[in-house]
Automatic annotation (TrEMBL):
Pfam families: ABC_membrane, ABC_tran
Keywords from the named record: ATP-binding, Cell inner membrane, Cell membrane, Membrane, Nucleotide-binding, Transmembrane, Transmembrane helix, Transport
SMART domains, per database record: AAA
GO molecular function: ABC-type transporter activity; ATP binding; ATP hydrolysis activity; ATPase-coupled lipid transmembrane transporter activity
Organism: Streptomyces tagetis
Location in the cell: Cell inner membrane
Biased composition (Low complexity): 568-577
PANTHER family: ATP-BINDING CASSETTE SUB-FAMILY B (PTHR24221), ATP-BINDING CASSETTE SUB-FAMILY B MEMBER 6 (PTHR24221:SF654)
One Gene Ontology CC term in the entry: plasma membrane
Bilayer disposition of the protein: Multi-pass membrane protein
Annotated family: Belongs to the ABC transporter superfamily. Siderophore-Fe(3+) uptake transporter (SIUT) (TC 3.A.1.21) family.
Superkingdom assignment: Bacteria
Protein name per UniProt: ABC transporter ATP-binding protein
Amino acid sequence: MIRTLLRVLGTEHAGPVRRTLALMTATAVVEGLSYALLVPVLRALFGGTPQDARPWLAAFGAAVAVYAVLRFLGDLSGFRTGTALLRGMYHRLGDHLARLPLGWFSAGRVGEVSTLAGQGVLQAMGVIAHLLAPFVSALVTPLTIVVVMLAYDWRLGLVALAAVPLVAVVQLWAARWTAAADEERHVNDEEATGRVVEYLQAQPVLRAGGRTTERFRLLDDALREVRRTSRRATLAALPGAVSLTLVVQAMFTGVLVLGAHLALGARIGTAELLALLVLAARSADPLLSLTEIAGRLRGARLELARLDELLATEPLPEPGEPVLPARHDLEFDSVSFRHGDRTVIDRLSLAVPQGRRLAVVGPSGAGKSTLLQLLARFHDVDAGAVRLGGVDVRAISTEALLARTAIVFQDVFLFDGTIEENIRLGRPDADEAEVRAAASAARLDEVIARLPGGWAAHVGEGGARLSGGERQRVSIARALLKDAPVVLLDEVTSALDPGNEAAVHEGIERLTAGRTVIMVAHRMRTVQRAHRVAFLDHGRIVEHGSHDELLRQGGRYARFWALATVPATGPATGPAPGSAPGPAPEADLR
Ligand SMILES: Nc1ncnc2c1ncn2[C@@H]1O[C@H](COP(=O)(O)OP(=O)(O)OP(=O)(O)O)[C@@H](O)[C@H]1O
C-alpha cells in the first residue's frame, strides 16, 4: 500500500515515509522490550529477593521514558508526513484535473470527484498520520514479546510463535472475505450521498408537485441499500474478528497449559511463569486490535486505488509542435463523434468564414451543444477534423485555442464573489475601467444598481442571487472582456422576462459583432441576426441557408419555427409544406 502511495504521489516522499516507518517500528520494539523487563521484576518480587527488583524497575522506567520520546517523535513525524502527503495529493489532483478535457467533467463526475477529493483523499492520506502507528504497534510489539519469550523459555516462546502464521492466514482470509462487501458498501454510500443532494435540490419540484410530506422513493431505496450493505459488511467482518480472537485465546491457553505442565515438573519457576503469562497477555491486546485497523487500512486502500485510477485518466494529447492559427474561420470536415456507442455527430461538414455568424437550430438532443464543445476541444472527434483558421484544433495548444474562443454557455457558472470578480475571469489582467465597460455593454448596470452593495455585492453560491438571464449577462460581459475573435454561444432555452430578453439580445449583439460566431439559437430574434442558419437533426445538417431562404423553402426549419411560434404569435412564419428532410448537405456559409 505504501508503494502505491509513493507511486501515486512521487518518490520525493519516500524518505520521510521511511523515516516515519523506522521511528514507529523502533517505538513498537521498545514498547515490547519494556514489557520484557517485567519478567525480571516479577521474578525478583515473587522469587523471595524483592530488593533485586530495584535495578530492573529503574531499567523499566528508563525504557518507558525512551518509549514515550520515540512515540512522540513517531507520531509527530507521522502527522507531518501525512500533512505533506495530503498537500502533495491535492496538488497532484488539482494539476491533473486542470489537464483533463472539459468534456470529462460531466455532472456525475463532479459528484464523484468531490467525494473522492474530500473524504477519499483524507482517508487515503490519513494512513500515515493515523493508521500506521497502531498498525505497526499491533504487529511489531507482539512479535518483540514473542522473541523475548523465546529468549526466556524457548518452549513457551514456540507456542506463542505458532500464533504468527495463523494470524497472517486469518488476516489474508478476512481481507478476501470482506473485499466485495466493502466495495458494495462504498458504491451504495456514494449513491446515497448523490440521492441526498438530489433530494435537496429537487425540493422546489417536489413541493410544486404537492409532495411535501411524501418521502422521496429514490432516496429511501438508496438508504435502504446502505443499511443492507452496511449490515452485510459488518457480518462479513465478523468471521475474521472471531477467528483472530480464537487464535489469540488458543495461543494464550497453549502457553498457560504448557507453562503449568513445566511448572508442575519444576522445569520453570512459578514467578517466571507468572511473568511470561503477563507478557503473553500483553501481546494479546495489540493483536486483537489488528482486525479493526486492517479494516480501516483496506478502506483507505480502496480510496487510494480510486485516486490512482483518476490520476491515470489520460488528458487529451497536446501537440508536440503547436501551430498558431493566423485566421479565425471555422470548419467541420466530415466530423463524427460518439458518446459511448451513440453517434451524436454524424459525418458533419460545415464552414463559417471569418467574421460571419452561423446559427445552429434543431430539436433537443440534435447535437447542437456538442458542436460547440468539439470546437473548444472539450472532446476530440472520432473521425474527421475540426479546424480553426485552417489548423486542426488538435494541432493548437489548449491554451492558445481557449485564448481565441469566448464561450457563453447556457449553464453559467458564477463564483460566490462580486459581479466584478466574476466578469474579471474573462481577462484577469483587465483594469477596472475595462471590467466596468464590459458590464455596461452587457447591460449589467441596472442589475448592479439593484443589488444591495452594488459592485461589492456577492452574487451568492453559483450566482443564486441573480436570475438566469442576469447570469447569462454576466457571462456575456466576461466574453466581451475577453475580446476573443471566435465566439461560441449557447443561448438560454428558458423564457426570459422582456427586460432581461432585451438586455441579453443587446449583449449578444455587441459580443458577436465582427467576430466569427457559432450560436446555438432558441429564439427567432437570435437566428435573424445570423448570416446563415444550419438546421441540425440527429447529428447531421438537414438544411442550411439564410433564415429567409429556409423559411421560403418550407421544410424542417420552417415547420420548426411555425411550431415554436404558434402559441405566442400564431403561424407567423407561414404554413410549412411538408418536405422530407434532405440528405446531409455540406453547409458552406460563404
Ligand atoms: N456526457 C454525455 N454522455 C452521453 N451522452 C451525452 C453526453 N452529453 C450529451 N449527450 C447526448 O448527446 C446528444 C446531443 O447532445 P447535445 O447537448 O449536443 O444536444 P442539443 O442539440 O444541444 O440539445 P439541447 O437543445 O436539448 O441542449 C444528446 O442525445 C445527449 O443525450
